[in-house]
Amino acid sequence: QVQLVESGGGLVQPGGSLRLSCAASGSIFSFNAMGWYRQAPGKQREMVASLTSGGSTNYADSVKGRFTISRDIAKNTVYLQMNDLKPEDTAVYSCRGTLTRGSILVREDWGQGTRVTVSS
Fold first, then answer.
1. Which of 11, 30, 66, 114 lies most in the core, judged by the most C-beta atoms within 10 Å?
2. Digits of tens for pLDDT over the chain (120 positions)?
3. Cα–Cα distances in Å, from 22 out to 59, 87, 103, 109?
4. What is residue 109's three-state secondary structure?
């Protein structure tokens, strides 16, 4: 099992920026893909951004153009740069790593989450 530890959350004003980090205890290439998810109070968890081992990215429509997922292979860390934050971005953000074989999910690991609050 690879442990994932998020950091970088906090309180920010609307229009501000934050960068979240997800540090893996092992190689991030032990996963086929890594992603950021968020869950706001009273809402279901949703995918925010994902990054495959091949470098392909995918974003939720609500964050396209504002959020960027990236990685530092040497540091085994995945980042989520969040710009132009809005109050509706307030949520607990969690990092997820998945290993799949075809359509079968072989393994997934989650971090503990980091809280982001966007408020004036």
1. 114
2. 889 999 999 999 999 999 999 999 989 888 999 999 999 999 999 999 999 999 999 999 999 999 999 999 999 999 999 999 999 999 999 999 999 999 999 999 999 999 999 999
3. 17, 22, 25, 12
4. strand
